[in-house]
Amino acid sequence: MCGIVGYVGKRNATPLLINGLKRLEYRGYDSAGVAVRQADALVVRKSVGRLAVLEQKLAEHPVTGTLGVGHTRWATHGEPNEVNSHPHTDCTGRIAVVHNGIIENYQELRAELTAQGHKFRSQTDTEVIPHLIEAELAAGAPTPEEAIRRALRRAKGAYALGILFHDQPHTLYAARHGSPLIVGVGRDEHFIASDVPAIVDQVQRVIYLDDGEVVILRADGVSLSRLDGTAVEAKIQPVTIAAEAVEKAGFETFMLKEIHEQPRILRQLLARHGWQSGTVALPDFALGAPYFRKLNRVMIVACGSAYHTGMYGKLLLENVTSLAVETDLASEFRYRDPKIDPGTLIIAVSQSGETADTLASIRMAKSWGCKILAICNVPGSTVARESDAVFFTEAGPEIGVAATKSFTAQLMAFALLAFFIGRARGELAETQAQELLTDLQTIPDAIHYVLDRKDEIRTVADKHHDGPSSLYLGRRFNYPTALEGALKNKEISYQHAEGYAAGEMKHGPIALINEYLPVICICTRTRDEVYAKMISNIKEVEARHGRIIALATDGDATIAQLAEDILWVPPTRDEFSPMVNVVTLQLLAYYAAQARGTDIDKPRNLAKSVTVE
Ligand code: F6R
Question: Structurally, how many domains does the chain consist of?
Fold first, then answer.
């Protein structure tokens, strides 16, 4: 979703804005722009498409100044064109605004401002903000800051804003409500940004803004206040990610790098949450065993890939506890009437910690008195801050738009959490927990094994990449894996792909099968009782001449007779096999996308952090 960078200091803002925007490219965008205060005016440059187009424009028509804002836009209101790109200005061009979020009452505000004589140029919701500020100044607001406060008290919806005034040469204004925004604290300079990676090479300290805060930034300091004008003390925190974490480290794409990081990340998680006092250790965890003993129900909410890990989490929690567990899409959950009481734990899963629907679900459940446990990758994110306890997946910044390392880290988090809760409730015997943990330790090596065979996966992807569609089948623990494999494929290769519970085939999708359709069947086994059922499902595909690509456990002779192509994985306990199987499917999608020539790290239409509903 939209990315924001702002700068005030002593250096030339323009290259710093572009540098920051490049580091936010992973969020997804379709146009970009900057406003820089040059001489006495705010100079705006915008362009459609990749940042390189904007850079070219700035090379042809340079703009220099020590105060500026930049923006990458992911279109919501109005098509991606130059007029709709940010920054937006007021009638006179003296106020420039960049925005991430949606102003929900913009039509009403726009009508009112138009009636007052304001001239609008774009179709965006954002444009009402500079005009509202302009109107508040004209109506007598004593300072720009007060005009911003008055304007924002009228705006409904979500926003992260960077604001410049032509007559405030040394001041950058910002505000946040519902969309992420941080302040970067440097020496004699300050930044704003949507995300830490944007400025990680420039500052070592940040302030995570809270909803309803307005901030004034100058080269020598920042001051925070709330919308009602009360001062807020700034909590400056060290940046915890290294600048190298947002580099490709020799890989051709971030996604490939992130796929290869998975064994290390899972090993780290296992080391951090090792065996301690008869259970897995959850250091610094704010919900203790007494809370879990009283619990009667768990509701997992998430979106996209995180929802798939939530489906897995449900199966595992059901396996090792007596809890009733349900998983729902946050975008659906927030509009349900799920009869939830304070005895229900909400587990919110989110890589970014900024997903609008997941956040809305958390807030709704909090109002019912529920405790919130987040599984989250980004420290300082809104989900992390608004939850009662956080299991950090510690996968480092994920730059590729398609979730990979955050996905397997979430699966691992669910496994460790399930053991912890099972032990806390006395429902998982110590010996059984230890045995499970011992098997879990084998996962990083098993993933290495898959990574070492990536050339075989590439060969299969090359063979099947050009069809119009593919089907992914799995059962039980690997039903979410099938959904995730299909999602990866459609996201980055743009090939239609459908994930299905293999047992549901007969109820409809079997009609799709013909001699052209690749059917990816996840059929790994150690002692899983659904293995035999999966074999029957594969036979049904074979009988209709589907092209079977099987994910199978090394040495499985039954599968060898059924499948056209086989992607082998090492023997892994069934409960944990998704962590290994999904890596095969990530690579399968990756090489298919490569063969189809797509922009793998920045697939079309997608945003990394979905901060609007
Ligand atoms: C898919 C993907 C998305 C996210 C979803 C939720 O590869 O990345 O489906 O999983 O948008 O995002 P988070 O986890 O940030 O809440």
Answer: 3
